[in-house]
Amino acid sequence: MKVLNIKALYDFDGYVVDKISCQKIGAQVNLEFDGRCGPRCPNCGIRLPKHRCLRQSVADLPVASGLIVYLNFPVVQGHCRKCRFFFTTRPKEAHPTKDATWRLMRRVSEMAKYAPVTAVAKMMSLGESTVRRYDMAVLKEDLPEPSLDDLRVIIIDEKSIRRGHGYVTLVLNGETGELLHMTEGKKKASLESFFEKLTEKQRATIEAACIDRAGSYQSVLGEQIPGATVVYDRFHLRLNLNAAVDEVRRQEWRKASEEDKSFIKGHRFILLANEENLDDKGSEKLAAIQEINEGIATAHYLKEQFRVVHTYSYAGSARKALEQWCDMAEESKLTPFKRLAKSFRKGADKIVAFCKHRITSGKIEGFNNLVSRVVHRACGITNMDYAWLKFRQLSIQQT
Fold first, then answer.
1. Whole-number Cα distances in Å, 277 to 270, 274, 281
2. Whole-angstrom Cα distance, residue 313 to residue 392?
3. Is there a contact between 263 and 292 (Cβ–Cβ < 8 Å)?
4. pLDDT at 202 over 70
5. Fewest Cβ atoms closer than 10 Å to its Cβ: which of 26, 69, 347, 395?
6. Per DSSP, what are the bridge partners of residue 129?
7. Residue 25 to residue 14: CA distance in whole angstroms
8. d(CA 399, CA 252)
9. Dihedral class, residue 152 (left if φ above 0, else alpha if ψ from -120 to 50, else beta)
């Protein structure tokens, strides 16, 4: 039997294949120094006199139906008289601290993008903790650092990734969707830690920041980037409106007759849906509940009417529409909408700022869905450094 060009499979610089031992479960590949090269100093390149020599084995990619392949190679510690340092030489394809080759670890990391750790561990005959360590090491090596230059728009939001309100603060590039920052908590210090990374020049390029109305982020933005425009996220404003509609529905349910209670209770999602998304049956049900209950009909009308504010291209027109909406909400005598009208008047500049910048948290909401999948597959997050790398990997894939 002839085996030609086995070096193509194990093309490790400075080493040659000496022996391959095969069994049904896998193989062991013995490497030796290429006599033309020998161990050399990684700095100056001169040959290293052998000071100490031993052998090491690392796991490598499987071949054929075997699940286990080990590379066995000499490890030499030598002293470079020119550099005046001791150096330990091993194949650069072998990770310096993990008992595996980089190509095996990258294969595991690639599989971990799409499959749960438990499935990857089973397919590769590895422990689950080993899969996580390999994946984390590869992501640290291969992922680029966040690009903080020429930022024009940032999107800020919080995300729960643990039970018991374990929140993290996320900052994304509003144009590319790249994750720039993640830290535990959702208080001022969580966002301040992001701006501590930025130089004055980098802060000066930020024109707008998109946030929701809640939280303590607004004061941080005023301190750190006073020249930037704060934009209230359209998606979160609609969530506020939906919450007000649902509160009115519950109030009306309490006052309704027994006959009407069951009817009101079964129409929650129809009331919260956009009218254009309802089919004929849904539209009929909406019309029926509006006919039997004036309070619910008014709440639904106000929710739909608010959408007009974001259709304008000029802030002046949008502000006028917002003022008219607030007047209607106050005249409706519906307590949840009167509260919204008061807070919307206070934050009018940030609401109508959407007309100029046209930014929403759509990118971060879509990203949050991907994060939820990762958290679900991992059955929770225990290592925040690993979570940061996994989430950054997701955001870069989207760009």
1. 10, 5, 11
2. 34
3. yes
4. yes
5. 347
6. none
7. 28
8. 46
9. alpha
